[in-house]
Design brief:
By secondary structure, the protein is an alpha/beta fold. It has 14 helices and twelve strands. Helix 8 crosses helix 14. It comes from Methylomusa anaerophila.
């Protein structure tokens, strides 16, 4: 009998904790409570579906807004209502509270019933938020399409909407198939080499989301091919040696407060770079930043944006594409 009970408890334990799965329990108030395991291995008990959510990244805001109405997010990243940096401006404009790097006390003042924090954030704020009694779910800061899917699944579980998470991933995969069908028609000898020139000067090498996206877009990431890893700065000498077919330039201007035109002048008029084919032949692409740096479900539109930069109108797309099953 004792052995049977032990086996039963083991099965129940796996149902609760295995693979981040939820275990639903109906409370006396009629709410369905559940437990999840976050990316840090922490077990979070949710008394019911959260109604006041705060996330600490634009990407996680976008994932949540793909599953829930705007009324469920009590604050949104300050860049998400910037048409240059965001593909969900209209949704972001419906949320009055804008945040950038809020303190634990500021987050507490918003009275959230769930806080979502990417794992690249300062661990101190996670501890502080938990010390203040808040429910905190840590998720991966995705570095690939596969990790975006993983994060969507986790956040869907965190908000008690696993079915919606599955619908989001299905739409991502459908878009990726559409892109692949077009990319597969491009002969290997005509595949382009691109280099991302970012204001984040150490971004874009091996291990970055951009490097993974290039594979789906059917282009060669020049920095990755040269062995440069994410976190390493692409020196001018290395850029000259790569001599990419296309340069993808930054568009970020932080609501018009950053002079990106000055950056263009300084970079494109640099005497040492005038031998670059992309500069000589003006193969310069200014992307929609809301797609290019997007590591939410909308990363698929970033992939299409890279393909558009390399191969033209066959990959054209509107400026406000967004995968959503929120009904809003």
């Amino acid at each position: 009998m004792r052995k049977s009970i032990s086996v039963f408890l083991l099965v129940i334990s796996f149902m609760v904790f295995g693979c981040g799965r939820t275990a639903d329990i109906r409370t006396s108030s009629g709410e369905i409570s559940y437990q999840i395991v976050d990316a840090g291995g922490n077990v979070i008990e949710m008394p019911g579906k959260p109604k006041r959510i705060v996330t600490l990244a634009a990407s996680t805001d976008t994932i949540i807004l793909g599953m829930l109405p705007t009324e469920n997010l009590v604050a949104v990243n300050a860049l998400l209502d910037d048409p240059v940096s965001s593909n969900i401006v209209k949704k972001a404009q419906k949320i009055p509270e804008k945040i950038k790097n809020p303190s634990a006390e500021r987050i507490l003042s918003l009275q959230p019933d769930l806080v979502i924090v990417p794992d690249w954030s300062d661990a101190v704020i996670v501890d502080s938020l938990r010390d203040l009694g808040l429910k905190v779910v840590v998720c991966k800061g995705p570095r690939s399409v596969a990790e975006v899917r993983e994060t969507v699944r986790l956040l869907a579980k965190a908000i008690g909407e696993e079915n919606k998470g599955s619908q989001i991933i299905a739409q991502m995969d459908e878009k990726l198939r559409e892109i692949k069908n077009k990319v597969d028609k491009i002969p290997l000898e005509k595949r382009k080499t691109v280099v991302l020139i970012s204001l984040m000067t150490s971004y874009g090498g091996i291990g970055s989301p951009f490097d993974d996206m290039c594979g789906y877009a059917g282009v060669i990431n020049g920095a990755g091919a040269a062995g440069i890893k994410n976190g390493q700065v692409l020196a001018k000498e290395r850029l000259i040696a790569i001599n990419p077919d296309i340069l993808i330039l930054p568009m970020y201007n932080d609501h018009g407060t950053y002079d990106v035109e000055s950056f263009y002048r300084e970079f494109l008029e640099d005497p040492s770079l005038q031998t670059l084919t992309a500069i000589k032949e003006k193969r310069l692409y200014m992307p929609r930043e809301g797609y290019m740096y997007n590591v939410s479900q909308d990363i698929v539109f970033g992939i299409q944006e890279i393909a558009l930069a390399a191969y033209g109108k066959d990959f054209a797309q509107p400026a406000d594409c967004h995968i959503s099953v929120s009904g809003e």
